[in-house]
Amino acid sequence: MANPKGEAANKAKRKYNDANYERIPLDVKRGLKAVYKEAADAKGMSLNSYIQEAIKEKMERDNKTTEE
C-alpha cells in the first residue's frame, strides 16, 4: 500500500524543484562518472556541487560572471 503522506511530500518537493531549479543532462564516457565522484568525495562534496564549482571556477577564469 502506498504512503499518501510520503506521496504528498514528494509532490511538494517536485513542485518546489520545478519552480526553482533547471536540469542540465550531462553525458560522460563510461567510467568517468566514478572518477568524478571519487574526486568530489575527496573534497567532501556531492558530485553535483563538484561539477557546479568546476563550472563556476572555469567561468571566473574566463572572466564571466555567475549568479548563485
TrEMBL record:
The protein's name: Putative HicB family RNase H-like nuclease
Source domain of life: Bacteria
One of the protein's GO biological processes: regulation of DNA-templated transcription
